[in-house]
Write a structure and sequence with these properties.
This protein is α+β, with helices and mostly antiparallel strands and 236 residues long. The chain folds into two domains: 168 residues, no CATH class; 46 residues, no CATH class. The chain is 23% helix and 35% strand. It is built from five helices and 13 strands. The strands form five sheets. A three-stranded antiparallel beta sheet has the order 1-2-6, with no helix packed on it. A three-stranded antiparallel beta sheet has the order 3-4-5, covered by helices on one side. A hairpin with a 5-residue loop joins strand 12 and strand 13. It is elongated, with a radius of gyration of 24 Å. The termini are far apart. About 3% of the residues have low confidence.
């Protein structure tokens, strides 16, 4: 075994999770799990010709993935990040996945475009703790990878709502036009107007980088932001 080429990931091997969430929508990140790496290593080099080991260095968990080339073992290492749930298990799993990327497994995920899902295409709710969460489960339905000068790059992605199968994101070669349901589109158009000047409120981003919706703008200021600034200036 002198040379190894790992295949690209399939759509059923790519998962997505919420990275950032706002009232207007959310962004998704693509990832693979550790079982995917194990399966591809077994499939490509054979279960008996690869191994992994973990070690700690300066308080960080590292994983080293070794592959046998004839009589010699070649190792590639990487460091993991802590999980929000199970610290040690999550860190060990993450270090393994990153070490596998060093061998080329799933490296195409780093070429992903920015994935934004508007609130009209997913269910965003505010919990009792006032934090936003998404109750929609997403699934990657199409994942196409191309070879660009020897490197694997994503050329097309399609993501659907797992419950009803509707496309919520489509990008790249042969991508589909994604539009919100008519009822949702009408709902998304702001009907909130400033009682002082009559202009339609659009909301804004506050100093903390948080989105303030048109409804919240009216509730907080009693008018649009421009009229509020003018009233403060005249009082001063």
């Amino acid at each position: 075994m002198s040379d190894i080429t790992f295949r690209a990931l399939r759509a059923d091997e790519v998962e997505c999770r919420v990275n950032m969430i706002k009232d207007s929508g959310l962004s998704l990140l693509l990832y693979k799990d550790a079982r995917c790496d194990m399966n591809i290593l077994d499939e490509t080099v054979g279960a008996e010709r690869w191994q992994r080991k973990h070690y700690e260095c300066k308080g960080n968990m590292y994983c080293s993935v070794g592959i046998q080339f004839e009589q010699e073992w070649v190792w590639k290492d990487d460091c993991g990040a802590e999980s929000f749930t199970e610290k040690e298990k999550g860190e060990a799993s993450d270090s393994f996945k990153r070490a596998a990327v060093n061998w080329g497994i799933g490296r195409e995920l780093y070429t992903s475009p920015f994935i934004w899902i508007p609130s009209t295409l997913c269910k965003i709710v505010r919990g009792s703790n006032s934090k936003l969460r998404c109750d929609t489960r997403f699934k990657v339905s199409n994942f196409s990878v191309a070879d660009l000068n020897g490197a694997k790059v994503i050329e097309a992605i399609e993501i659907i709502d797992e419950k009803d199968g509707k496309v919520v994101f489509s990008w790249g070669a042969g991508s589909k036009k994604v539009s919100a349901p008519k009822s949702e589109s009408k709902k998304a158009i702001s009907k909130v107007v400033c009682p002082k000047c009559g202009r339609m409120l659009t909301g804004y981003i506050n100093k903390r980088g948080e989105e303030v919706t048109a409804e919240q703008e009216l509730q907080l200021l009693g008018m649009c932001k421009e009229c509020y600034k003018e009233s403060k200036t005249s009082k001063g």
